[in-house]
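User: Sequence in, structure out. Go.
Assistant: Echoing your sequence, followed by the structure tokens.
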Amino acid sequence: VPHRTTLPRRPPWAFATEQAQQVHSRQFGTHNLEGFGFGPADTPALRAAGAVLDYLLETQKASLAHVDALLPYRQGDTLEIDEATRRSLEITRTLREGRREGSLLWVLDRTISPMGSRLLAEWVAAPLAAREPIEERLEAVEQFVRQPSLSQTLRTALRQVYDVERLLARVHTGRATPRDLGMLCRTLRALPEIKTALADATAALLQRLHAQLDPCADLEQALADALAAGELPLASREGGIIRSGYHPELDRLRSLMHGGKEWLARYQAEQSSATGIPNLKIGFNQVFGYYLEVTNPHRDKVPAHYVRKQTIKNAERYITPELKEHEERVLKAEEQAKLLEYDLFCQLKDLVQQASPRLRASAAALAQLDVLAGLAELARQRGYCRPRLVEEPVLHVVEGRHAVLDAVMEHGRFVPNDTMAGPDDGLILLITGPNMAGKSTYIRQVALLTIMAQLGSFVPAKEATLGLADRIFARIGASDELARGQSTFMVEMTETARILHNATPRSLVILDEIGRGTSTYDGVSLAWAVVEFLHDRNGCRTLFATHYHELTELARSLPKVRNLNVAVREWQDEVIFLHKIVPGAADKSYGIHVARLAGVPRDVLERAKEILARLEQEHLDPSEQSRLARRPRIRRREVQLTLFAAAEHPVVNALKGLDVNRLTPLEALSLLKRLQEQAVTPNGEAATAT
């Protein structure tokens, strides 16, 4: 929930099953919601929906006729992405500033209408998980890519389209203005051109949308005949809504109103001539209506039948019986004209309400066309390719790019990378390399490519074959939740636990620097065990970026693990990041080099080099290999408890076999001396008691 959002409390009965059934029956006119695809297992969801409807009916104080259906949300229909993953991948908002600009949604949004923009946000938030509907979207996007003229014609026509969904909502809730109806009329006027452009479409989805589009020619004609030309007013009771010639009675009243102005001009001329007052004029105010104004130099010429109403600084104001009689006629005609125009406006709103189902279907079709054409425009401009979707858990991407960075960087600056993962290429990719080299960017781009493909978009790559994912998990970045009493490391472990418990063989897991929030050995141990668990239990595609070079040893013992690293070149004590992912493990982290780039004092850097050399020497065995032990055998359903195993020393075995109650003091001293000698000899023989 956004910060400072007001959450109104509802009484418990608003969430009761019986109350929800009553609300749904009144709203949808049905005995139950089985026709909408709901069953007994959906009762909690229906109770929540009933509470929402009850709240809207109470607060809106208007008809909710435009809410005419409930759609069930089923797990499995869409790609599941939890909130932590959405934040980490910056799908709709940037992680640091919470802005839309810089997110995946911002890059993808080439829509023209508000309806299309909202629908794209829905698609990005809930990509599809089934192959057939995804392929239908991709086919439609491909036709727009291959036929730029079709796409351009459609997008040009969409610029004449207003937000029909919001316009219908305002009509149904009684908040529509004359200007809203004018926007709806102009939208309907643009639909025939869109429908004609789609007449020869071959993509199945475009053919369905073509059939779904209803120009509502009868409604468009009624609105065009009735509404005045030009910019319509916002107020519905002030006139200026209906065009002349549409309604005879309205024309008569308007003629009377305009004729009244001519009468006033003629009356002013007659009175000026009769009284000899050359500058006599007629005015109007809200206090006493029409009046005759005479300046003070001509006050003595005022006839006796003038009735003085007001004295001002340099003039007097009068009324006459003829002037008041005319005022009543004009004002009455104006008032009647405004009432008649309002009645005619309400009749037009009724026509819109009657056509609401047809309009809503057309609005849904327009939104989809806007999104598909926008995705095609993006693909054509950025050189995206159509992904090939398969059921097998694979990732085969040639020259893939990060969608956001590729869009914001200068053309050609971003370094593309291949990704090969699957049963034959390794399901777990361990990526090592220095800071700032691009490890996090690489693993993020793979997740974004998957999301883009499953929402129906082309992807930034030369080629891409992607196995459908049921869930995407990402553990990237460090953050704490102090309000909930959770440290950075606690948040990291909580999100990691969620991944380990919920990832399936079809899932895609993105992990960055697991274990860095605690001590080095704790971190290595946890990261090591997490990789083993994902390998043995989850069996899902995983990209694991880490600085722990010890983890690269896992490729020797786990057949589905592959080592990758970010290529680096050293030249004249300088390090050049190539941002290219290559096979194999990195041999250095170059952390001290990054510290130098950040401006850390030279003395600190030199001391860090000395300490690093000493630690690296202590960490390696005589054969220059890591001292981490081999992976112990694990019985079925048994959890590995440690990474390090050591055989017991002979002295320990000797002590375990002693019966101290049978030893004399002299024997004990003698035995203690022998044990001490053996303790300094790794292969000493076991001592025995005599």
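User: And one key feature?
Assistant: The first helix runs from residue 17 to 28.
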